[in-house]
Amino acid sequence: MPRARRTSFTSSLDVNSFSTDVYTLEKTGREVARGRWITVEPLLILSNMASAGLLVTRLQYLRARIAHDKFNQTSDYGANESSECDAAIQNSSSIQLQQAIQVELSLYSLILNALSTFPAIFSTILLGSLSDRIGRRIGLVVPIIGLVIQCALYVTIFYAHLPIWVCFVADTLQGLAGGYGLLLSTASAYIADVTSVEQRTWRLVIAEAALVLGSGVIQPINGFIIQYCGIGVAFCTSLGVALPGLLYAVCPLTTPETVEEDTEETLGEYIKDIFRGIYRLLSINVNGRRWKIAFLFIAELFLNTVINGLQIVPTYGLGPPFCWGPSIVGYFTAAVAILPVIGVTVAVKLFGICMDDLWMIFCGTLAMAASCVATGVAPSTPYLFIALVPYSIGCLISPVMKGVLSKLVDEHEQGSVFALAGCMVNISQFVGPVLANALYASTVSFFSPLAFYVLAGLLIFPTILNGIVQSYGTETHLGYTQIPGDDDG
Length: 489
Known about the structure:
This protein is mainly α. It has a single domain (36-255, 266-472), classed as MFS general substrate transporter like domains (Growth Hormone, Chain: A). It is built from 22 helices and no strands. The chain has helices at 2-12, 15-25, 29-34, 41-71, 81-89, 92-134, 137-160, 165-176, 179-194, 197-228, 231-250, 267-283, 289-309, 313-318, 326-354, 357-377, 381-386, 388-394, 397-407, 414-443, 450-458, 460-472. The longest helix has 43 residues, at 92-134. The model is unreliable at 1-25 and 475-489 (pLDDT under 50). It is a multi-pass membrane protein. This is Proton-coupled folate transporter. It is found in: Apical cell membrane; Basolateral cell membrane; Cytoplasm; Endosome membrane. It comes from Strongylocentrotus purpuratus.
């Protein structure tokens, strides 16, 4: 009897069965990532440290270059801007000069934001949806490469004294690489791959908290570097932080792939699948999801437009009557990053006890409107910092909205829904600063807070759309089960 059992075993030990057994013992990248509490969060921290530091440094560098090149004002790139602004308050002609510099600065910021965000709209849709077919890593690596190139170009612009138009090239290349929208949408899809429905909203909140935490870590350091070491060193710091982020995204040990590539499809079939997947996402109406998805996308566009429009606050603070220097700019942008980490995590935990996701979005919208109004009426710098308290609660809108959208679609549509959500982010990154900068540039001479009141008014629209979705509810309509043979319809 033992002999017969031994014979049976050896006869079945052929190459095919052995390789199959070994394969089943190996964990897939998704299973490896699912067992980790930390996945893409370090990548988000490093990338936003580099990006946020670069943006603030760029703002102060451009202001100094504009003052020097167009108004013949000497500048040591940030160290004496606050004293010049304070002196301008005592002199009416100097006030007009400072206002003229602010107008030019806001227009340059408008152009740069347009060049970095408009190309990213298409890159995010293409690469974000493609990640459902060929893997998430492409959507994580490409925007980091664009960020590294952008940082390197700004280092070159500063030290080689290149013309300002080279800044336009740097931001355009970063936009073509997908930028913030592609990185966040792919990271969100990555988290959706490795979490359950119950965990998802909280993990998305943590991911976005990690994103803004990176900005909070770098800003005080960045302000210190600009004040004591110069803008060139600050640009180099952003480049030095972006490079480890690129290594983290590329390395399969730190970022295991969660989507298996379909090697049988050609590039043309990949492209067709992208548009087919987006069409299915917006056309299939199982459980009445179609109009809810559309309403939530539009609401997210308005909400993120307001959030991105508030990026003009540092520009607002650089002029009279606030007259911020580099250190105050650093402290403020650090507070903008750190307070939402605290506010969002606490608010989601507390609100989650007594309300659903849509009610959290409603409360966050009201908090963001309160922050806009408080910023507009602020008479001095301390009040601008106080306005960040409701802002920190309002920042829960974006991750909670993504959680709702993720729960409305099936597993194989996560990349497409987050790509479209990232597209809304990129559009808002274009529209928000353009609208806010245009309003500020046209009203700075007679009523500069008007931009913040307009942003508060825009929040009426997402409040209405969220209320309509809320009246029907999503509790019994989370996702759908795909019907066999439904691939083409």
